[in-house]
Amino acid sequence: MKNNENNENNQWGEPISSGTQVVGPYFGAYGGAFIPEILYSTIEELKEEFHKAKNDPAFWEEYKALMSNYSCRPTPLTYAERLTEHFKGAKIFIKREDLNHTGAHKANNVMGQGLLVKRMGKTRVIAETGAGQHGVATATMAARFGFDCTIYMGEVDVKRQRPNVFWMERLGATVVAVKEGTRILKDAINEAMRDWVSNMDSTHYVLGTACGPHPFPEMVSYFQSIIGIEARKQILQQHGALPARVYACVGGGSNAMGIFSGFFDDPVELVGVEAGGYGLSTGQHASRLSSNDSSIGVAQGYKTYFLQNHEGQMKETHSVSAGLDYVGVSPILANFKETGRVRFEAATDKEVIEALTLSIKKEGLIPALESAHAFVQAFKEAPELSADKAIIINQSGRGDKDIFTVADAYADPAWREFIIAKAEEYHE
Amino acid sequence: MNKTKVTEYIENQLKKKKILLMTHIVCGYPDFETSYRIVEEMVKAGVDMMELQIPFSEPIADGPVILHANQKSLESGTTVKDCLDFARKVTSDFEIPFLFMSYYNILFKAGVDTFVKEMASRGLQGAIVPDLPPEEGSKYLSCMDEKGLSPVFIFTPNTSFERMKYIANLARGFVYCVARKGVTGLDTSFSDKLETYLQQCREAVQLPIALGFGVKDKSDVNFLIGKADIAIVGTQSIRVVEQQGLKALGPFIAGLRD
Ligand SMILES: Cc1ncc(COP(=O)(O)O)c(C=O)c1O
Fold it and tell me: Which atom of ligand 1 has the smallest separation from the CA of A397?
């Protein structure tokens, strides 16, 4: 067993080392590297640099130091006493990735890749972003390390996440609003790829989730595994036993891979929660692994389940949360779906707002809309479990960025008035 | 390995011409009737071979012009089946070889063996699949070989000589040498560096070599004479039709060679 609680040296937790499960290029039938020939040598270089870093203890030390001095790690595991009382079931613990610098788990991946960029001697980074969290994290990393930075973001997402765009620009990044395709996350990935095939000599593509061509799924999961390693140690300290279940939302799959990594070898049920949008029966959702609407395909460099039509054209997806609104999903999770190691569920937009309301009222926590999907499923299941059991919810990010979307969902009249007044002020 | 029909055709044409021309269209853009007339104009103007692109929703290797054409075609309802039917029509009406170009998901979703059989029965002679590196393509390769079709692979300025040799072993028909980094439709500088690169491509493979990305006028094509066997014109002909209309296409194509 890896990362044993008896291992005193492992205070911080070391990266997942066991688990043939997380070594690419293939995870069961999924993964691979379906890339244009022009990127072959760039991907080779990245693989080599990543493997060198992975085998270099000094690299992990540097990563740990950076994450604790710059990004609040280890993040706490919070016992949610009032939510537990409310549901009268399992003890609810919440892993606080919202407390990372820039407000989401995205920082773990981005800072790790930033260190690799330094090692490779590149001077520019590019990234796609959906909710804008990964974009902000990447722009922050670029500012910290002194890299040039361009962020690709679908035009629809630029509209729904303007505050994040504002901060990315303040951080010195160029934000490109992608007007192609459905103008959301997948289209931003395509545009970032197009930049990368043009500028790979100077530029590293900081992919934001556990998707894309090898080695990205493995590499992103490796950096995010810090979440699960900490969480395992913390739950043993606070609860004295492993949790019964662990819940995480699944967009591309990076925060889920992160927290699940701590528990792969344990008798712990892992639950991934996807965006159910308006409901699975409406077809307007982004549920790849929890609905029957997806099928296996190859796009954006990797093989996995995609929401696509019978001829292989990608479908439009819908979610209230930009960060989960994506057609593909981590090939590692696709494999875990097949092996049964992870169970997948969907939460609708409506349920998400309800869960958000409850966690704000009961715990003073404001999860990101993405993270709130995990809360929905945990809230449904907590009452089924006895009080001696514990569950962990991964709060992948904080919800401040969602203020416009959430205020609309609440139809808050005072907020509306404020925005109108502000708009009038600008008109004058 | 026996030569495929595509290789034989290219070798024969090269006895008559200093350099061959291959052009590209996106099937169903702006509509199938126009696509057909574009093919007709191109063949009349002396094009030697053509790529028919099946539009895909995520064309990562294509630049703005072809990307836009992919999207417009899909928006107007183009299906893969429509493209196969269109291919049947042009391969029976025109003498030159036609190849499909698309992304791997289109083949994968249909089933690679089924798709290759469909291609063969429609008279297509090969395919270019830019997001399918040879490492991931063993099934595709064996299906194509079985039907005598040409899986065209790609060399780039980033491809090491060693890797060129590896790819050369698996390639059939000809090799598509990409002139530069980046996506389709941007400018290429036709320079000494390009010449050195083409020499290296030539040394790595016995098959004919084609150069594409950024070829847009007669001086580009002239530059390539003696250095490559085929000049590939993609984006520029779409631009000509978009900006000057269909009637400008024939003169444009004819004007690319003496
Ligand atoms: C807060 C938050 N959680 C979750 C996600 C979904 O990504 P992943 O599934 O890779 O964790 C995002 C993506 O933008 C996010 O911002």
Answer: 1
Domain boundaries, chain B: 5-245
Q: Are A239 and A93 in contact (CB under 8 A)?
A: yes
Q: Which domains does chain A have, with CATH numbers?
A: 27-60+105-217 (3.40.50.1100), 74-103+225-410 (3.40.50.1100)
A276 in ligand 1 pocket by Cβ < 6 Å?
no
pLDDT of residue A12: 41
- Our measurement of the distance from residue A279's CA atom to the centroid of its chain's CA atoms, rounded to an integer in Å, reads 22
Q: List the beta bridge partners of residue A96.
A: A395
Tokens of A316: 């439009």
Indicate whether residue A308 lines ligand 1 (CB < 6 A): no
Residues 6+ apart with CB under 8 A from A85: none
CB contact under 8 A, B109 and A194: no
ipTM of the complex in this document = 0.95
Amino acid at B71: Q
pLDDT band with cut points at 50, 70 and 90 for residue B1: low
In chain B, which among 118-147 make CB contacts under 8 A with chain A? 130-133, 135-136
User: Which residues, in sequence order, are CB contacts of A227 under 8 Å at separation 6+?
Assistant: A75, A95, A97, A105, A108, A255, A258, A259, A261, A262, A394
| Residues of A contacting chain B (CB within 8 angstroms) | 32-42, 180-181, 186, 190, 193-194, 197-200, 295, 297-301, 303, 306, 308, 310-314
Q: What is the pLDDT of residue A3?
A: 39
Cα separation, B32 vs B26, whole angstroms: 10
CATH code for the domain defined by B5-245:
3.20.20.70
Dihedral sign (CA B52, B57, B61, B63): positive
Residues 6+ away with beta carbon under 8 Å from B137: B129, B151, B170
pLDDT over threshold 70, residue B51: yes
Give every strand in the sheet of A390-395, ordered side by side: A77-79, A91-96, A390-395, A245-249, A269-277, A342-348
How large is the greatest C-alpha to C-alpha distance in chain A, in angstroms?
66
Residue A121: band (very low, low, confident or very high) from pLDDT cuts 50, 70, 90: very high
Report the pLDDT value the prediction gives residue A21, as an integer from 0 to 100: 56
Query: CB–CB of A313 and B59 under 8 A?
Result: no
